[in-house]
Amino acid sequence: MSDPRNLSTIERYFSAFASRDGKAMSDCYAPDARFRDPVFELRGAEIGAMWQMLCSRATDLRIESSNLRAGESDGSADWQAWYTFSATGRAVHNVVSSRFRLAQGRIVEQTDHFPFWRWSRQALGMPGLLLGWTPLIRNKVRQTARASLAHYMKSGQSKYQG
Predict the structure, then answer these.
(1) Sign of the CA dihedral 17, 22, 27, 33?
(2) Over the stretch 68-124, which tens digit does the pLDDT of each residue have?
(3) How many domains does the chain have?
(4) What is the dihedral of CA 63, 67, 70, 71, to 10 degrees?
(5) Looking at the domain assignment, is residue 147 inside a domain?
(6) For the stretch 11-34, what's the b/e string if a residue is b when 16 or more beta carbons lie within 10 angstroms of its beta carbon?
């Protein structure tokens, strides 16, 4: 059974994402939410800070979402992102599938799936092509992303309070 309130949350989330509005994306999450994708595993305020960081740094981000669905406590969406990876200046086209758990019209858990090796080939070039399938590259990307988020949050640039 479809739930209009949860579907509205997912639609609002992707509308904010397409507008590069990390704060509005943050507002779609419950304070104790959890987020996971091949790079990040986050909780609470870290999620909003991540979206604010990514959206604020994106100079050419374009988002398209499709297949938005929501039930009484779950939802899903497919989306694509086109952007320049700032660390290398390389163009990326990421194809992502999101799964949500929702409660009271807010996201309590989100899991995003995308092929990390495909992403790393685009974002990192030759190192991603040769080693993107290994834990070595994945762990390095995770460590760098985590450090970047910690610096962003510590600098006070994040407006998300949970």
Answers:
(1) positive
(2) 999 999 999 999 999 999 889 999 999 999 999 999 899 999 999 999 999 999 999
(3) 1
(4) -160
(5) no
(6) eebbebbeebebebbbebbbeebb
Query: Which of 35-39, 42-46, 95-99, 128-132 bottoms out in mean pLDDT, i.e. has the lowest?
Result: 128-132
- Within a domain: residue 142? no
pLDDT over 50 at 161, yes or no: no
* Assigned domain for 144 exists: no
Rounded to two decimals, the pTM is 0.89
How far is 44 from 149, CA to CA, in rounded Å?
A: 13
CA distances (Å), origin 62, targets 6, 50, 55, 65, 120: 24, 17, 10, 10, 19
The amino acid that residue 6 corresponds to is N
Closest CA to 156 of 53, 71, 78, 73: 53
Domain holding 16, by residue range, is 4-114
> What three-state secondary structure class fits 99?
strand
pLDDT higher than 70, residue 157: no
* Helix%, strand%, coil% for the chain, nearest 5: 40, 35, 25
How far, in Å, CA of 118 to CA of 94, rounded? 8
Distance CA 78, CA 99 (A): 9
